[in-house]
């Protein structure tokens, strides 16, 4: 049987450095075509990937498993249209990330023609941490009555703690705020046979801190939207723009 610290190394230290992906969800209120460009960097884009999508009325489309380079700036550019009924020739949505990390970009409101918009940067299976650079094999962890925490450390199953994970956790022990969950976490580089865990807070989207007490700093620049209309319908286009800001149907933070 593997000595527990050696098992920790087996669970947590592969050769790769990080592993994650970008996922984009869009919902259009009108039939239109869209071109989506993903690229590293902002001013001089590199590693550009281009996708073309067609939308029907009230249709939701998803792009997923888009490779990302963590710890670097990146850009998402969406060009869509036309919607001739409202004089819209094309619209651009631009999102810039100065530090690519695990995050969700989900504005409360979005301009039509899109009625839903979410960008998620997620870790691949068994990768954890804000840069998806902490490996922890959750399946193997479960075989020894452990789980992988959000940070990629090993801990006891939810609501339990202690060297043998036989002690029940009571919520007030961590004093987690904003719906954070109190969990156990074992030292990652333990070199002894003694496994003493500590209690930490796992925070929901949008909150950070030892007790999830503060809102997360916005690492992504706010999205920018530009609309371009047909000259012959400039008046209609102006009215459409002024009335086009609607509630984002895909906003994930409304459920927190």
Automatic annotation (TrEMBL):
From the UniProt annotation, give the residues forming the signal peptide.
1-18
InterPro entries from the entry?
Answer: DSL, EGF, Lag2
Primary location: membrane
- Which GO annotations describe the biological process of this protein? cell fate specification; Notch signaling pathway
Instruction: Cite the GO molecular-function annotations of the record.
Output: Notch binding
Q: Does the keyword Cell membrane apply?
A: no
Q: Which residue intervals define the domain EGF-like in the entry?
A: 170-213
Q: What does this protein do?
A: Putative Notch ligand involved in the mediation of Notch signaling.
Q: What is the protein named?
A: Delta-like protein
Q: Which organism is it from?
A: Caenorhabditis latens
According to the entry, what is the taxonomic lineage of the organism?
Eukaryota, Metazoa, Ecdysozoa, Nematoda, Chromadorea
């Amino acid at each position: 049987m593997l000595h527990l610290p050696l098992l920790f190394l087996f669970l947590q230290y592969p050769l790769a450095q990080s592993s994650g992906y970008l996922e984009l969800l869009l919902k259009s209120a009108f039939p239109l075509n869209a071109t989506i460009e993903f690229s590293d960097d902002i001013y001089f884009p590199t590693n550009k990937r281009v996708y073309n999508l067609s939308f029907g009325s009230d249709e939701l489309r998803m792009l997923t498993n888009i490779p990302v380079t963590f710890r670097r700036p990146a850009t998402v550019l969406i060009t869509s249209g036309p919607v001739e009924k409202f004089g819209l020739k094309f619209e651009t949505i631009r999102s810039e990330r100065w530090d690519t990390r695990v995050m969700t970009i989900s504005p409360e409101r979005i301009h039509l023609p899109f009625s839903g918009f979410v960008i998620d940067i997620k870790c691949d299976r068994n990768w954890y941490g804000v840069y998806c650079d902490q490996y922890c094999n959750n399946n193997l962890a479960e075989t020894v009555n452990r789980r992988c925490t959000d940070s990629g450390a090993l801990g006891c199953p939810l609501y339990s703690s202690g060297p043998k994970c036989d002690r029940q956790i009571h919520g007030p022990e961590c004093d987690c705020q904003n719906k954070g969950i109190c969990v156990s976490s074992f030292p990652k580089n333990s070199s002894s046979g003694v496994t003493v865990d500590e209690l930490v807070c796992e925070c929901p989207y949008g909150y950070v801190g030892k007790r999830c007490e503060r809102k997360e700093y916005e690492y992504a620049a706010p999205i920018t939207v530009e609309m371009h209309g047909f000259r012959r319908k400039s008046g209609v286009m102006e009215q459409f723009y002024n009335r086009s800001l609607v509630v984002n149907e895909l906003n994930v933070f409304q459920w927190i």
